[in-house]
Design brief:
The protein is of the alpha/beta class. The protein has a six-stranded mixed beta sheet, sandwiched between helices. A five-stranded parallel beta sheet has the order 3-2-1-4-5, sandwiched between helices. A five-stranded parallel beta sheet has the order 10-9-11-8-12, sandwiched between helices. It is globular and about 90 Å long. The chain binds S-adenosyl-L-homocysteine (SAH). The site of S-adenosyl-L-homocysteine has 24 residues, from α14 and β17.
Length: 486
């Protein structure tokens, strides 16, 4: 029967109060655990108990009445939970409880229940209870999961702080109006961020200063340098999602996919600060200036970068700049292209039989080539993940072979890794530049070189299978190795 009037929401203080649980199975165990969490004194009535219930009984945390339900069990109980799998017993419990004016919850039976147990999101002393009145528990659970991902742990710290300081806040601001403004100023300021950064002492200091009015209500801006991953929005972290949902301004690279951008806050200002190897680009200095300008206006800025901000992403420079200008910042790591492309091409970057090390390398121009340790890069039994390498593949091949890497070493070029249009082209080092050219591999593409690359042929699972590109031998133009592996 649908509930025609709304339920009355209620948070009950069960501390040291007796609650009867009828049933000794896994469901009764779960309910008993929740009751213990709330400090109640559960009395479990059932012929037998699960091992955990029995252990709690052994520890004196619960009482146990062995046997079959009897209405006398209700004596002294404030609430009762019927958690047996026998409908007749559950009904008898509900009827007996009704007669004694004891609220009863019958698990999974809203009709028999005189109280419902909501879905809960808990952050310290802060609890969000969700109920659909028993009509659509799936919907309540779905909403609960969404809230779980939305609310980070700083809520618990905030709730703990406010609970602890409740008296002092009331003394300091006796009028409800001033009190509300005080809380609003706290929440708009750096406090939540300081808790997210686990800087509890600083958070406490800031709170004290605000309370003593030593600190002006700051609406200081901040920057979160956030890794957006390789493109598949499912690879975003929860912290990235939360930062994007709180942002006033999102400065994003061109590499960041549409799918990811769609998840950002609707009314944030989106500014593309695209940087591509070719074509129009925003200079790093201009990006710095934009971050500064918006943060100084008190905005929450998200600097959203492809992959991970600290892997060939100039995230380090951005932090140095922010530090130098006194702008508070956070960093949210992202899944870097090497890790994502390998996973989405079915290539384990390390493998007991083939590779004990992996190197992340960037090689986008001649100058950067000269600074690399080619001897080390040419070692066997390791995997190279080469970023921004499409243009310099010839030089890369020549140097690796000259330093002793076998021309037969397998490679995989992963173009648009993790995206709908992902393409994987495989071959051997000897033919790498020719294959890349003939298959017109375009940026963004990542080169994975090493024995593990051959596994793409069998382990692929995403998108089109890899194209195994063999090039006729006469088009090869190999230099003679100058260094032989010992
Ligand atoms: N910070 C980024 C890398 C930026 S450098 C990260 O951690 O992934 C840009 C290079 O990353 C591209 O030239 C390409 O080599 C690689 N890359 C980024 N996204 C890619 C993708 N989806 N597929 C293949 N390569 C990618």
């Amino acid at each position: 029967m649908p509930v025609s009037v709304p339920l009355f929401p209620l948070f009950a203080d069960l501390k040291d109060r007796r609650v009867l649980v009828v049933g000794g199975g896994p469901v009764a165990e779960r309910k008993t655990e929740a009751l213990l969490h709330a400090g109640a004194r559960p009395r479990v009535g059932a012929p037998d108990l699960t091992p955990r219930l029995r252990a709690w009984h052994g520890e004196g945390r619960i009482d146990w009445i062995p046997g079959h339900f009897d209405a006398h069990w209700l004596a002294g109980a404030w609430l009762v939970v019927a958690a047996t799998d026998d409908t007749a017993v559950n009904r008898a419990v509900a009827t007996a409880a009704e007669a004694r004016h004891v609220f009863a919850n019958v698990v999974d039976d809203g009709e028999l229940s005189s109280f419902h147990v909501p879905a809960i999101v808990e952050r310290g002393p802060l609890q969000i209870a969700i109920s659909s009145g028993g009509g659509a528990p799936m919907l309540a659970r779905h909403l609960r999961r969404q809230l779980e991902t939305l609310l980070d742990d700083s809520w618990a710290s905030l709730a703990n702080l406010f609970t602890r300081q409740r008296q002092r806040i009331r003394q300091r601001f006796p009028q409800p109006g001033e009190r509300r403004r005080f809380f609003e100023a706290l929440l708009a300021g750096p406090l939540p961020r300081l808790f997210r950064q686990q800087l509890h002492a600083q958070a406490e200091q800031h709170f004290q200063a605000m309370l003593d009015e030593r600190a002006a209500a700051t609406h200081a801006g901040s920057v979160a340098v956030v890794g957006a991953g390789p493109g598949d929005a499912g690879l975003l972290t929860l912290n990235a999602l939360r930062a994007m949902n709180e942002a006033d301004v999102i400065l994003h690279d061109r590499l960041v996919s549409e799918d990811v951008l769609r998840l950002g806050r609707r009314d944030a200002t989106y500014i593309e600060v695209g940087k591509s190897a070719t074509g129009h680009s925003t200079r790093q200095d201009d990006i710095h200036a934009l971050m500064l300008e918006h943060a100084r206006k008190g905005k929450r800025v998200v600097r959203l970068k492809g992959g991970d901000p600290f892997v060939f992403g100039r995230g380090g420079e951005e932090l140095e700049f922010l530090r130098a200008h006194g702008i508070p910042y956070e960093v949210v790591p992202g899944i870097t292209a090497a890790v994502a492309c390998a996973a989405y091409a079915g290539i384990p970057l390390t493998h007991r039989d083939h590779a004990q090390a992996v190197r992340l390398v960037t090689a986008h121009c001649k100058d950067s080539f000269d600074t690399l340790d080619w001897h080390a890069l040419a070692q066997e039994r390791q995997t190279l993940a080469v970023y921004m390498g499409v243009a310099g593949l010839e030089g890369l091949r020549d140097r690796l072979v000259a330093h002793g890497r076998a021309p037969s070493t397998p490679f995989a070029l992963v173009e648009n890794g993790s995206r709908r249009d992902q393409r994987v082209v495989t071959g051997t080092l000897a033919d790498l530049p020719e294959i890349a050219r003939s298959h017109q591999v375009r940026s963004p593409a990542l080169l994975i070189l090493g024995e593990v690359a051959a596994l793409a042929g069998t382990l692929h699972w995403f998108g089109a299978p890899p194209v195994d590109a063999a090039v006729p031998t006469q088009s090869r133009n190999l230099p003679a190795p100058t260094l032989q592996a010992a």
